[in-house]
Amino acid sequence: MHYEGNIIRPPSEANSILLQVTVGCSRNKCTFCGTYAGERFRIKPDSIVMEDIAFAARHCRRQRRVFLCDGDALIIPQKRLLSLLIEIGRRLPWVTRIGAYANAKSLKMKSREELEELRAHGLGILYMGLETGDDVALKRINKGAAAQTMIDEGKKARQAGMKLSVTVLLGIAGKERSQAHAEATGRVLSAMDPDYVGALSLMLIPQTPLYDDWQAGRFVLIEPSEMLAELRTMIAHTDLSQGLFHANHASNYLPIKARLPKEKDKTLSLIDDALAGRVSLKPEWMRAL
Predict the structure, then answer these.
(1) What pLDDT was estimated at residue 283?
(2) What is the CATH number of the domain that holds 252?
(3) pTM above 0.90, yes or no
(4) SS3 breakdown of the chain: % helix, strand, coil, rounded to 5?
(5) pLDDT band with cut points at 50, 70 and 90 for residue 6
(6) With 80 as the cut, is the pLDDT of residue 285 above it?
(7) Is 161 within the bounds of a domain?
(8) From CA 264, how far away is CA 179, in angstroms rounded?
(9) How far apart are CA 222 and CA 238, in angstroms?
(10) Where are the beta strands (DSSP E) in the chain?
(11) For 13-55, what is each residue's pLDDT tens digit?
């Protein structure tokens, strides 16, 4: 397989065929992210991607899923992306699902009908980084989209028959807007009603604008107990029809996996026990990206 730069995939795609169709991220301006620093976004030549699909056809016959790397595969023009999906379906007929990252920009460039067309050819799940539902925080981290745009584009993906997995970041709004961020994020998640929510805890990355702000005292990173309180508020304000809320990433202090709304009260009670010291948090040395 032909790979360039950093290859990033969601935890749930650990056993998938990782097919790199783009390099980097089309936006690459979020203040907290250093994943693609200095990397010019580009779509890989079809010839290379087709060679990788041929390789997978020979050597990856036990994997049942494909993930399209890197950070923004959905931005590939419709006709070109559709041809890649058709080729995957032709050469890898045993694959049951194809996934990709998506952001508000790339989703906005696709109509519902185009998303339905992609869904019909195997693109079954999109992973969207919301980070926060708080418009003030969204602007500060230079996300490039307001909360309502995030809602509209997420709902469009769901209406097109896609499964939607949304990532949020605990601590991303700093100390000043911690609870406002938590409440607003819960409201946005409720409006989007994704199939999966993944809550990660912010870890500051050197050589990013947010890290520089932290060092200069312009950004205050909240304490573990405050991140836990933020998570509690977020879940309390999140109403999903039947979604799975994960907070079991390696970065998190308290692993949580809850089906909402069924396990909402039980989860809030668990967080209350942790805040009261009756449940131990993960030590700092065990946290990692």
Answers:
(1) 79
(2) 3.20.20.70
(3) yes
(4) 40, 15, 40
(5) confident
(6) no
(7) yes
(8) 19
(9) 21
(10) 17-20, 22-23, 42-43, 65-69, 97-102, 123-131, 163-170, 196-201, 243-246, 257-260
(11) 999 999 999 999 988 999 999 988 888 899 999 999 999 999 9
For 84-112, what is the HEC assignment? HHHHHHHHCCCCCEEEEEECHHHHHCCCH
Q: Which two tokens stand for residue 179?
A: 């609870």
75 lies in a domain? yes
272 upstream amide cis, omega within 30 of 0: no
Give the HSE-up count for residue 180: Cα atoms under 13 Å, Cβ half-sphere.
Answer: 10
For 213, the domain range is 11-277
Handedness of CA 133, 137, 142, 146 (dihedral sign): positive
Provide the residue type at 63 as one letter.
Answer: Q
Instruction: Look up residue 106 and give its amino acid.
Output: S
Quote the number of domains for the chain.
1
| Residue 110 pLDDT greater than 90, yes or no | yes
Count of CB atoms situated within 10 Å of the CB of 228: 24
Mean pLDDT for 4-14 is 90
* Sign of the Cα pseudo-torsion (269, 275, 277, 282, in order): positive
Domain-located, residue 211: yes
Nearest Cα to 131, choosing from 166, 102, 101?
Answer: 166
**Cα 280 from Cα 194, distance rounded (Å):** 30
Report the pLDDT averaged over residues 122-138.
Answer: 98
Please give the single-letter amino acid code of residue 178: S
Residue 206, token pair as written in the block: 């050197």
